[in-house]
Amino acid sequence: MLIDLRSDTVTRPDAAMRAAMAAAEVGDDVMGEDPTVNRLEAEAAGLFQREAALFLPSGTMGNQVCLGTLVQPGEEILAEASAHILLNEVGSVARLWGAQIQPVPGHLGCPDPQAIGALVREPDIHHPRTAVLSLENTHNYAGGTVLPLAQVDALVALARRHGLHVHMDGARLFNAQVASGIPVARWVRDVDLVSVCLSKGLGAPIGSLVLGDAQRVTSCRRLRKALGGGMRQAGVIAAAALLALRDGPGRLADDHRRARRLAEGLAEMKGVRVDLASVQTNIVFAEPVMPARQAQDRLAALGVLCYALSPQRLRFVFHRDAGDEALAGALGACKKLFA
Ligand SMILES: *Cc1c(COP(=O)(O)O)cnc(C)c1O
Fold it and tell me: pLDDT tier at 1 (50, 70, 90 boundaries)?
């Protein structure tokens, strides 16, 4: 059987989720009448201790409605140089909102405060206006790293001093909660808007959430409709998302333990390099001596799927459908290739 470590998005809904989907009470969510969506949004708002929540079909749409709420055409968003909104959202900030992203150098996914100080634009007729600081937590391309809370607090304070709004791409924020012991509510206490994926490690087949103050979430709801994300009897998918929200976080520690074991195994093999400091949650980046694409193909031939996300780097991601057998299989295949 194939071991699929390409992404934590590959999980399939389990029997309990499918049963909940089949039994879901539904209504027209664009009219605010889907009881299951309403329950999901209310529960999420309570869990994150924010006024309001919004259910959306994807994390990309979640980030984009947040940014569309916080930015005007001609303005600029500061984001760490390998942020998902910069590299993986099809240039949507430019396409949709007429804004641009200024990449900020960072360490393990955390933007450098001094660089931010230097990159915020002075008021000038020639300049775009810097409007938003966007933080990604955990940070995907840095290796699933958790931004240190003290640094998040300092960055939010810095942003406020410069009059910036703050967005958090919390696609994997529950991984940060599990790795740090700091609850999601504390992570998002001071940001304007946060988006969170339910369809990654938490295991829902579809869905993301945006959370924040009621007024801003109402704006996000309008933009969701504008993007074609107003769904009708969405309770069918919200039912699975509700189980993901309730039960998903409890098993992420297993993913983190497996990722760590894989990374430690790889670190002992001659043909591949791993930066163990970056392995903090469910993601492992490795740099094979051979080209990453070739390593990806050879691992696939041995039954292990991973992603060559650059010519140098392979990414392995642990998730609900990759347990201890998958870990053992991945270590075995890597040993054949890299030891
Ligand atoms: C997956 C992901 C998203 C959203 O992705 P979708 O595939 O649109 O749900 C956003 N940010 C980060 C960091 C991600 O890893």
Answer: confident
In the structure encoding, which two tokens stand for residue 321, read together? 């459908």
Give the residue whose CA is nearest to atom 2 of ligand 1. Answer: 171
Among candidate residues 157, 139, 140, the one with its CA nearest the CA of residue 148? 139
- State how far the Cα of 214 lies from the Cα of 124, in Å rounded to an integer: 33
Task: Indicate whether residue 261 lines ligand 1 (CB < 6 A).
Answer: no
**Per-residue model confidence as pLDDT tens digits over 178-230:** 999 999 999 999 999 999 999 999 999 999 999 999 999 999 999 999 999 99
Answer yes or no: is the C-beta of 169 below 6 A from any ligand 1 atom: yes
- 107 pLDDT higher than 90: yes
Q: Which atom of ligand 1 is nearest to the CA of 208?
A: 9
* Nearest partner of 65 among 111, 96, 36, judged by Cα: 96
- pLDDT reading at 279 higher than 90: yes
Mutate which of 8, 11, 86, 88 to test ligand 1's pocket (most atoms within 8 Å of Cβ)? 88
Quick one: pLDDT at residue 314?
98
Question: Is residue 82 within 6 Å of ligand 1 at its C-beta?
Answer: no
Q: Could you tell me the domains of the chain?
A: 3-9+251-338 (3.90.1150.10), 15-248 (3.40.640.10)
Q: For residue 285, what pLDDT band results from cuts at 50, 70 and 90?
A: very high
Looking at the chain, which runs of residues are DSSP E strands? 3-4, 52-56, 75-80, 100-104, 106-107, 110-111, 129-136, 165-169, 193-197, 208-212, 272-273, 283-288, 304-305, 307-308, 314-317
Tell me, using a 6 A CB cutoff, whether residue 197 lines ligand 1.
Answer: yes
